[in-house]
């Protein structure tokens, strides 16, 4: 399926994987609606993307955990850009590692649950009701995580792991419930990708940060964006239901090949 002229709503667009997805979709000719909380970063990104493209781009400073803000922003984006063909739920975060669950701060637990669970559901709810269900067509792509399927052996991951497992369950259940429409529901599961995500996850614990990447190189955000474009470009009768993209050294969450760089 060509992405030329398709209207894509992307959350978490201001940096990292989202920013890379936005760049790749612009190259593929899509029109973009960009959401995140940081208006300044979105404005800069729009300017950067517009320099090399004639695609339509709009953005909104939206906290995906606030349903009223999500609904208002989705409605106004549709008025400006037309019906939404593709929703990419990407905005997400992990906080508080390596503190074990009982030591996590309650506001951090609330922020993770609200962003990673409510955020994905609120966005899907608004986009389905305001746009996709009218035409009974579209694609919802949820950026989940390999940690959605596998319990991480490192501390401080209980809430984030549970959030990502919930996103996997939501993806599969929503796909079933949209039977009778041409709406595809897909998941892409990144492994370790070098973005701000990990600094946020472990705060200022540099030892933990560096230990995590010891002996191998994490992926970079454009690696994930390439996978996104591949999944979206498939014909409508074909769903790449899920795709795991990990550094080859990341054999599983339990086994990392820490000698990978040594062999290069
Ligand atoms: O993270 P980062 P990634 N409302 O921190 C936005 C998953 N993943 O790109 O609001 C709206 O660079 C935030 O923007 P802002 C991960 O779980 C990653 O690595 O302006 N937006 C920013 O644009 C997540 O689902 C790895 O601060 C909100 C973006 O989210 C996705 O990949 C591994 C928001 C986060 O950018 C992208 O993460 C894995 C809110 N409430 C899964 N809260 C990895 N990097 O290794 C945050 O398995 N944002």
Automatic annotation (TrEMBL):
Signal peptide: none annotated. Keywords: Oxidoreductase. It comes from the Eukaryota. Gene3D superfamilies: NAD(P)-binding Rossmann-like Domain. One of its GO terms (molecular function) is oxidoreductase activity, acting on the CH-OH group of donors, NAD or NADP as acceptor. Coiled coil: none annotated. The keyword Oxidoreductase applies. Pfam families: adh_short. Belongs to the short-chain dehydrogenases/reductases (SDR) family. This is NADP-dependent L-serine/L-allo-threonine dehydrogenase ydfG. The lineage of its organism: Eukaryota, Fungi, Dikarya, Ascomycota, Pezizomycotina.
């Amino acid at each position: 399926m060509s992405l030329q002229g398709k209207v894509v709503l992307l959350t978490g667009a201001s940096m990292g994987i989202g920013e890379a997805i936005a760049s790749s979709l612009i190259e593929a000719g899509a029109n973009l609606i960009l959401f995140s909380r940081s208006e300044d970063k979105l404005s800069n990104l729009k300017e950067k993307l517009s320099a090399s493209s004639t695609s339509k781009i709009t953005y909104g400073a939206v906290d995906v955990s606030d349903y009223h803000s999500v609904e208002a922003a989705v409605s106004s984006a549709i008025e400006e850009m037309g019906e939404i063909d593709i929703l990419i739920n990407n905005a997400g975060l992990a906080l508080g590692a390596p503190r074990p669950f009982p030591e996590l701060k309650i506001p951090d637990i609330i922020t993770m649950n609200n962003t990673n669970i409510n955020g994905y559901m609120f966005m899907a709810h608004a986009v389905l009701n305001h746009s996709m269900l009218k035409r009974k067509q579209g694609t919802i792509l949820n950026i989940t995580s390999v940690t959605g399927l596998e319990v991480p052996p490192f501390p401080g991951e209980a809430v984030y792991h549970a959030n990502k497992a919930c996103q996997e369950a939501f993806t599969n259940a929503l796909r079933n419930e949209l039977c009778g429409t041409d709406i595809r529901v897909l998941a892409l599961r990144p492994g370790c990708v070098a973005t701000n995500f990990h600094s946020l996850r472990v705060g200022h614990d540099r030892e933990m940060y560096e230990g995590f990447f010891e002996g191998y190189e994490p992926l970079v955000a454009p690696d994930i964006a390439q996978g996104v474009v591949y999944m979206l470009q498939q014909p409508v009768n074909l769903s790449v239901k899920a795709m795991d993209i990990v550094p080859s050294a990341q054999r599983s969450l339990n086994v990392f090949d820490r000698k990978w760089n040594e062999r290069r």
